[in-house]
Amino acid sequence: MSYIEIHDVSRTYRQKDQVFQALSHVDLQIEQGEFICLLGPSGCGKSTLLNILAGFDRVTEGTVSIGGKPITAPTIRNVTIFQNYGLLPWRTVEKNVELGLESLHIPADKRHEIAEHYLKLVGLQDFRHHHPAELSGGMQQRVAIARALAVDPDILFMDEPFAALDALTRMNLQDEISSICRQQHKTIIFVTHDIDESVVLADRIVIMTPNPGHIKAILPVDLHGQRDRTSPDFLHVRDRVFQSFSLKPEDKTEYYI
Ligand SMILES: Nc1ncnc2c1ncn2[C@@H]1O[C@H](COP(=O)(O)OP(=O)(O)OP(=O)(O)O)[C@@H](O)[C@H]1O
Predict the structure, then answer these.
(1) Distance 21 CA to ligand 1 centre (A)
(2) pLDDT, tens only, 110-160
(3) CA 245-13-208 angle, 5° bins
(4) Predicted TM-score of the model (pTM)
(5) Cβ(72) – ligand 1 distance below 6 Å
């Protein structure tokens, strides 16, 4: 049995007087420590699947379990990071990172020590007394990542966390989250519609397509930590993803007489 088991999951929503099928017969098994990207165009059910796994939504049919237990509600063991950072504007950076630790009733001096550690990890130790509004979008998302890691979650769910950032900041954060999460052996489920992002980050890319939302293919990324965006191996995986979406015409042989 795998760490996360998704069996024959379907999700329908009632939209006005119609039933809309957001997910149809999804099967997926995920091992502990895997970095999984759910990749697909708008409306293919990526967030729906993530929300079901995070316990924010429920299945209409099928079963989902983590560590052998059915998912019934969100738990403090798993943390979700959203696109809009979700920081509390009236708290300093440090106090934002300590937030989850307070819910775990960790004493103040220990909280402080853990917050310091994770702020250092994301390179923001010098900004601990700043407020979120004084930071750039990329820095705010780093605070959200530090806050998420500080509670030492089993699983990190990330729903397009870098979508609002400029391309260069986004690339930096992709590299950072990839190395931090691999160092810490976290299980990550990461939603994106960006093909390059999925190739940079994932151990496996789950390719989803809409109407109804389902898994079209699962692509292992065998780049062994070598995620140089310009390397031939990287471009080869990228091409395979494009082909899965049928976005890249097959190479055609041309004959000249
Ligand atoms: N609570 C809801 N009620 C009704 N319909 C919903 C609800 N949640 C999602 N849907 C529908 O299910 C479909 C899949 O939505 P979902 O947000 O999972 O897609 P997505 O792949 O994450 O898209 P995007 O990349 O745009 O966020 C959409 O057509 C959406 O309108």
Answers:
(1) 10
(2) 999 999 999 988 889 999 999 999 998 889 988 998 999 899 899 999 999
(3) 15
(4) 0.90
(5) no
